[in-house]
Amino acid sequence: MISLAATVLQRFRESFTSEPTLYFSPGRINLIGEHVDYNDGFVMPAAIDKGIYYAVAANNNKELHFYSMDFDEWLTVAVADIKKMNNWKNYVLSVVNEFLLLGHDVKGFDCVFAGDIPRGSGMSSSAAVEGGLAFALNEMLDAGLNRVQLALLCQRAEHNFPHVNCGIMDQFANMMGRQDEVLLLDCKTMQHQYFPLQLQGYKIVLINSKVHHTLVSGEYNIRRQRCEEGLAILKNQLNIQSFRDITRVEDLMQYKSGMPEKVFNCCLYVIGEIARTKKAAAFLPQDNLIEFGKLMYATHEGLSKLYEVSCTELDFLVELAKKDSHVIGARMMGGGFGGCTINIVKEEAIPRFIETTSKEYLQQFDIVAEAYVVATADGTRKLPVTP
Ligand code: GLA
Q1: Alpha carbons 87 and 126: distance in angstroms, whole number
Q2: Is 45 close to ligand 1, i.e. is its CB under 6 Å away?
C-alpha cells in the first residue's frame, strides 16, 4: 500500500515543478490534565503516529499555493493579502501571519498536505496542521525558532485567525513529543519532563464516538472565560496568582455563594484536576497504573458534571469501560463535546473490548464507533524524500 507521505509527495510533484521538502506533524493523546493547560495546570500528553504530512517548497513569487487533499480544496493567496478566512484556511494562514508579525519576509511557497487524524476526534489535528507548516517555514525562512518557540507561535496562530483561545498542550506535544514517552508539562513555566510509557501488559485504546458537536470552539472559549471570572474573584480574596495556589477545596468553598454556579463548578473542577494530575504523575514512575486509572475516571466525572464538556455518547462509552474489569481507566479526551475516549486496557482483552464497546454503542446510538490502539511518536520532523 502506498503511504500517505508518498501520496502527498506525488500530488505535489503533479501540481508544481519544484522539488519539495517533506514533513510529518503528529496529533496527540493526553493521559490526564484536561482543560487545565490554560489554567496554569499540569498536563500529560504524548505525540502519536497519526498526523499531517506536508510537502512544501519556496516559490519566490510572493504567492502562497495550498492544496488540502483532505478537503480537496485549493487556496491561492498573495502574501500581501493574507487575512482571516474560514475552516482549514484559517489555520495555515494564521501560521504564516505569525511569521509576518515577527518581521520575516515570506517570499511565497507551494504546499500540499494531508492527514490521517480522524476529523473532530480530539487528537488535535489543528495543532498538527499548525505545527507542520510552522516547522517548514522556520526552516525555509531560516527563522531560527526553537521547538518551544514554535509551539508558542502555533498557539498564537490558533488564537488569532481561528479564534480558539486554546492552551499550550497540543502545540507543545506536537513539537516536543518523543516516541515511547509521555510528557509532564507545567503549563505555567513550560518546564517539562519525560516519562517512559511502560504500561506493563496494558495499552492505550481510543474509542472515537464519531460525535462532533458544532460550536465547540465557542463553548471552549466560554469555559475559559468562566475560569478567568472565577480566578479574578479568588485572586482578590485569597491573595493567589493561579488555581494551583489553592490546595484545599475548603478555601474555595467559602466563595461559593459569591460566584455564579457554573463559574464555581469550573473552579472546583480545575483545582481538582490540577491536584489529580500531580498525583497521577507520581503514580506513573511507581508503576501504579491502577491508581492512575482511578484518577482518569475521576477526571471524566469532573469534565462531565462540573466542567460540562462531555456528552451522552462519551459518558456512555466511559460507563461501558467501567464495567469491563480489563479496563483500568477511561475518560473523554481533549476539548470535549464529542471525539474520543482514552482507555487503558489489558492487552489480551483489547479485541473483545473493542468488539463489545462497538456493538453496544451501535445499539444505543446507531453510530459505528472507531477504535485505535495508540502508538506514540516523535514530535514534528522532516522526513526523507524518496525519488
Ligand atoms: C483542546 C485545546 C488544548 C486543551 C484541551 C483540553 O485540545 O487545544 O489547549 O485545552 O482542549 O484539555
Answers
A1: 10
A2: no
d(Cα 342, Cα 128) in Å, to the nearest integer?
19
**Dihedral, CA of residue 153, residue 157, residue 163 and residue 164, to nearest 10:** -50
Residue nearest to atom 8 of ligand 1 (CA): 166
CA of 304 to the centre of ligand 1 (A): 15
List the grid coordinates of 330.
477511561
Q: Does the C-beta of 38 come closer than 6 Å to ligand 1?
A: yes
- Fold of domain 4-197: Ribosomal Protein S5; domain 2 (3.30.230)
Report the nearest-CA residue for atom 2 of ligand 1.
166
Active site (annotated) includes residue 116: no
- This prediction has a pTM of 0.97
The backbone torsions φ and ψ at residue 35, rounded to the nearest 5 degrees and listed phi first, read 60, 30
Q: Which of 37, 40, 170, 315 is catalytic?
A: 170
* Burial status of residue 151 (CB atoms within 10 A of its CB: 0-12, 13-18, 19 or more): buried
Reported as a single tens digit per residue, the pLDDT across 30-80 is 999 999 999 999 999 999 999 999 999 999 999 999 999 999 999 999 999
Nearest atom in ligand 1 to 122's CA: 7
Q: Of all protein residues, whose CA lies closest to atom 11 belonging to ligand 1? A: 335
* 265-288 exposure pattern, b = at least 16 Cβ within 10 A, e = fewer: bbbbbbbbbbbbbbbbbebbeeee
Give the tens place of pLDDT for each residue, 322-381: 999 999 999 999 999 999 999 999 999 999 999 999 999 999 999 999 999 999 999 999
Residue among 30, 35, 276 whose CB has most ligand 1 atoms within 8 A, to mutate: 35
Backbone angles phi and psi of 66, in degrees to 5: -115, 140
